[in-house]
Amino acid sequence: MELRCVDCATAYPPVLLYRCKACGGILETVGDDGTERVSLGESVTPLLRAHRIEAALPGFSGEIWLKDETRNPSGSFKDRLVASAMGRALALGVRKVVCASSGNAGAATAAYAARAGIPAVIIVPAHTPLGKVTQIAAYGALLLLVEGHYSRSYDLALALAERHGFANLTTTFINPYAVAGLTAVGTELVAQLGGAPSHVLVPTGSGPLVKGVWQGIADAGATTRLIAVQAQGCAPIVQAFDFGAEEVAAWGMPQTIASGISDPLIGYERDGAYTLKLVRRSGGRAISVSDDELRAAMQRLARSEGVYAEPTGASPIAALPRLLAAGDLPPGSRVVCMVTGHGFKDGKIYQEMPVRTHEVDDPGDVAAVAELCERALAQA
Ligand SMILES: [Zn+2]
Questions:
Q1: Sign (positive/negative) of CA torsion 188, 192, 197, 203?
Q2: Cβ–Cβ under 8 Å, residues 338 and 318
Q3: Domain check: are 160 and 202 in the same one?
Q4: Start-to-end C-alpha separation, the chain
Q5: Could you please report the per-residue DSSP string of 189-239?
Q6: What span, in angstroms and rounded, lies between the C-alpha atoms of 175 and 166?
Q7: Does 245 share its domain with 170?
Q8: How far is the CA of 29 from the centre of ligand 1 (A)?
Q9: Which residue range(s) make up the domain with 153?
Q10: Residue 330, pLDDT score
Q11: Ligand 1 mean position to 142 CA, how many Å?
């Protein structure tokens, strides 16, 4: 295995290196060195047909599938990146790791560091959802809270890695061994569907999952249209797509309930440009959704399919009506929605939604309770 720059193709030995020394470009791994992963028993995640979501899309004739990444050991697809990068860090003799995260990658890094028996420093924005912060702390990691947007946490993790000997497990494009762990998503999709999907909708911050899906499907000799989904309150890649630009400009003030994709890309705009290039090359597009659309999609996913996702994980479902209206989902489409993170991680958003709860005054009066149930169910 070696590292190679995606822009200038300069090759490097497989050490801990985060950017091309020649041009500052993104590095990718080429070939497999058989490094043993750190494992928490992760395996292939379920691919579920979403019949009721299909039926709720008037005019759609095709298949909608949910790739349920909430079922990874720490509850998000980030486990795939961390299992891969942690194994490589250990093989290189590093015994401490750092990760800048909006929450899920931090939880994954903390979990796999505990499993490996090494210390982890996790850096998150101070406003990170409590469920994610609680999970990171529970695994025993040292948690650092940084005021402001995610890119500030990113800068600090990179500085600790470059100056103080930490392996940087931040899951943007910065760690090529982490990104390599996502190729399996594309490979699994082809195996589970018996062929490539026509479209894969990917919640997108900087975009490593876009790359993973693309690479895995390309390795299987197939293609798919990649749809990068962002939140309207933080949509640097969508903005560049809509302008027809090749460069991606950083996003000034992220404002969205989708914490997992709230990444303004400040200082690593090239990550966004690379993702945009892959999206365009695939014949796909970038699209953004509002927070209200995210909430509605979370409810639909939970109530009509039994899948409990955080706002970011529901963003592909939120994008479906817009894509259909734009003519991007022709008849016969086989669409995969990447459900990237668990609802447990951000319960507050669900807690703010109206729920069907009733007080039972007298549990002994079963007839009255039965009547209440009939009445309430009839209204549903
Ligand atoms: Zn380069």
A1: negative
A2: no
A3: no
A4: 57
A5: HHHHHTS--SEEEEE-SS-HHHHHHHHHHHHTT---EEEEEEETTB-HHHH
A6: 12
A7: no
A8: 13
A9: 78-178
A10: 97
A11: 34
| CATH code where residue 127 lies | 3.40.50.1100
What element of type H or E holds 286? strand 285-289
364 assigned to some structural domain:
no
Task: Quote the number of domains for the chain.
Answer: 2
Three-state SS for 259? helix
Residue 85 Cα to ligand 1 midpoint, Å, equals: 21
One-letter amino acid for residue 54 of the chain? E
Which pLDDT score is estimated for 78?
Answer: 98
Whole-number pLDDT of residue 36: 82
SS3 307: coil
**37 CA from centroid of ligand 1 (Å):** 27
Segment 184-241, tens digit of pLDDT:
999 999 999 999 999 999 999 999 999 999 999 999 999 999 999 999 999 999 999 9
Whole-model pTM?
0.96
Mean pLDDT, the chain, whole residue set? 96
Give 17 Cα–ligand 1 centroid separation in angstroms: 12
Q: What's the pLDDT tens digit per position in 83-109?
A: 999 999 999 999 999 999 999 999 999
Q: What is the pLDDT of residue 357?
A: 85
* CA separation for the pair 157, 171 (Å, rounded): 11
* pLDDT at position 356: 80
What distance in Å separates the CA atoms of residue 10 and residue 259, rounded to the nearest whole number? Answer: 35
Residues 100/120, Cβ–Cβ less than 8 Å: no
Strands 62-68 and 27-30: unpaired
Task: Provide the pLDDT for residue 43.
Answer: 87
Q: Which two tokens stand for residue 252?
A: 């000034």
Tokens of 177: 């061994």
Instruction: Show the tokens assigned to 281.
Output: 């090359």
Which of the listed residues 130, 145, 178 is the one where a domain comes to its end? Answer: 178
34 pLDDT tier (thresholds 50, 70, 90)? confident
Which residues are found with C-beta within 5 Å of the ion, ligand 1? Answer: 5, 7-8, 10, 20, 22-23, 25
How many CB atoms sit inside 10 A of residue 164's CB? 10
Residue 33 has pLDDT above 80, yes or no: no
315-324 mean pLDDT: 98
Q: How far is the CA of 210 from the centre of ligand 1 (A)?
A: 20
Ligand 1 center–CA 101 separation, angstroms? 25
Taking the mean position of all CA atoms in its chain, how far away is CA 235? 15
